[in-house]
Write a structure and sequence with these properties.
about 120 residues, mainly alpha, elongated
C-alpha cells in the first residue's frame, strides 16, 4: 500500500509538467512563489524578445518623424510599465511578487500585439 501512495504522489506531481509540455506553455500556476515568479519571468522574456522584434520592424518601416515618435513612445512606455508593475511589487505578502511579475508579462504581451499591428497599417 505504501508503494501505491508513492506512485500516486509521483504521478500527481508530474501531471502539471506533462500538461504544460503538451500545451507548449509552462504551468506557472503551481509551486512556490519563487518558482511561479521565475516561470512568469521566462514568459515575459519571450514576449520581450518578440516585442523588440516588432519594435525594430516598426522603426524600419516608418518615416523619420514617425520613427522618432515611436522611439519616444517606447521609452516612455517602458518607464510606465516599470513604474506600474513596481506598484504591484510593493504590495503585501508574497503574492505581490507574483502580481508584479504577471503585470510585467501582461503589459509586455499587450505592447507586443500593439507594435505588431503597427506593421499591418
Amino acid at each position: 500500500m505504501k508503494t501505491l501512495w508513492i506512485v500516486l504522489a509521483a504521478t500527481a506531481a508530474l501531471a502539471p509538467a506533462a500538461n504544460a509540455a503538451e500545451s507548449g506553455k509552462p504551468d506557472c500556476d503551481s509551486g512556490r512563489t519563487p518558482d511561479i515568479v521565475a516561470c512568469v519571468g521566462i514568459e515575459t522574456a519571450k514576449w520581450d524578445k518578440r516585442m523588440n522584434a516588432a519594435y525594430q520592424k516598426a522603426l524600419k518601416e516608418g518615416e523619420p518623424p514617425r520613427q522618432e515618435q515611436l522611439r519616444t513612445a517606447q521609452r516612455v512606455w517602458i518607464q510606465f510599465r516599470d513604474a506600474n508593475c513596481l506598484y504591484f511589487d510593493m504590495g503585501e505578502g508574497t503574492i505581490a511578487r507574483i502580481d508584479a511579475a504577471e503585470c510585467m508579462r501582461n503589459m509586455t504581451e499587450t505592447r507586443t500585439h500593439e507594435l505588431e499591428e503597427f506593421g499591418q497599417h
